[in-house]
User: Fold Homeobox-leucine zipper protein ANTHOCYANINLESS 2 from Rhynchospora pubera.
Amino acid sequence: MFGRGGIVQSVTRRSEADKQLILDFAVTAMEELIPMAQLNEPLWIQDFNSSTEILNEMEYLRLFPRGVGQKPPGLTSEASRHTAVVVMNQANLVETLMDVNQWCTMFSSIVSRAVTLEAYSTGVAGNYDGSFQVMSAEFQVPTPLVPIRESLFVRYCKQQQDAMWAVVDFPLDDLRPGPPVQCRRRPSGCLIQEMPNGCSKVTWVEHVEADHWDVHDLYKPLVNSGLAFSAKRWVSTLERQCERLASVMSSNYPSGSTGIITPEGKKSLLKLADRMLANFCGNVTASPTHQWTTLSSRGAEVCVMVRQIVSNAGGILVVAASLWLPIQPKRVFDYLRDGSTRTETQNAIGNQNNNLILQECCTDRTGSYVIYAPVNVVSMNLILTGGDPNYVVIMPSGFAILPGGPQSRSEELNPQNEATPNEQGHVSESDNNGSLMTAAFQMHVPSMPNSPLSLISTETVNNLIAMTVGKIKAALSSGNRAP
Assistant:
């Protein structure tokens, strides 16, 4: 989607009549989002077995006949909603959603890239009331085995009665020339209600139609369940990020081992950690711009893939291995975030003695991340005193842990402290389906543009993955816990 100049021009170079038509569509989408967020049965039916809500599609079509039309052939419907109270005031949350840079930073584990193509209206009275803009975005799952989802849409923000705000996205994919889209978001977005103590109550709706055919078998249960791109994932990420911001910027934030962290240093450190997470997630996704080479794939056991990035400093080898573990995600996360379990991996990827290790650990109900990168002492001292983190070179490695796994692996489970997929092989909140883990590493390698991977690099990659995966599986499968 990015770089398609003709598509961008066809969307943005429109007459005033066309822009009014798009605004009319935006209003219709808003009229759909609000009841989708507020109504219960018969529109949403509670599934007590999985503790989730299921959209009644016949009732949906009856209530919203002016929508984007019937579901295209070959696409699967994914509809979900989730509500939570987050530690961010209403005004800041609305700004975060309407500013594309803040939005990408807040949801960097979900949004790999995004751009505002044209802002038709920036709102009135100094806020975002009535603002609507054309945007393009790529949505990701942190693994090379799930293709990214491209979307062209209009985002519309409107203040409602009783001091509630609503932000809705509706698709423009049908306006693009070319083959049928593989993903279409029906009106999706959130309602934001102001709460005491600087908090906001957020109700999020995600309604997507997507093609699942090119999803790897390892991740099909997660994607087929709808959890991979669900409203729960968006809201859980928002909760985690808001709590992180509030914690890091508090006055009692601890000092680092290299000295006192200034208030400016806290902000710089937070920005650098944000870059680490965004870089890690962006580098392991199955984007069209990422040409991956499969080194080994043993069905649903483990898939090892590599790709090369050519830079002025030489080549960067990105290695990613995705596999299923019959272990609950929390146990995997607790084990990996312990620094002592990471020593051998750091040595394998060539960590220099003069470097410190900056580690970012974060977890929520839909996924966990343990990301780390070597940073030299001089750069770290500059960061802790408020230096610009954009000048710090980082090559983050780490782990992404998601819930769920394929039914076919159930016979390998141990009876103690292990997880079992449900009978249908789908992922649900009430089931302990094990963990889908992606381990990714970056390293410098001598390279020339378009050159194949060297035998030395390939051997290094296989040894690194075998050692890392073997160590994790042995430690966790035997019932050992992180010290």
About this structure: The chain has twelve helices and 17 strands. The chain has a mean pLDDT of 81. The two ends are 46 Å apart (CA to CA).
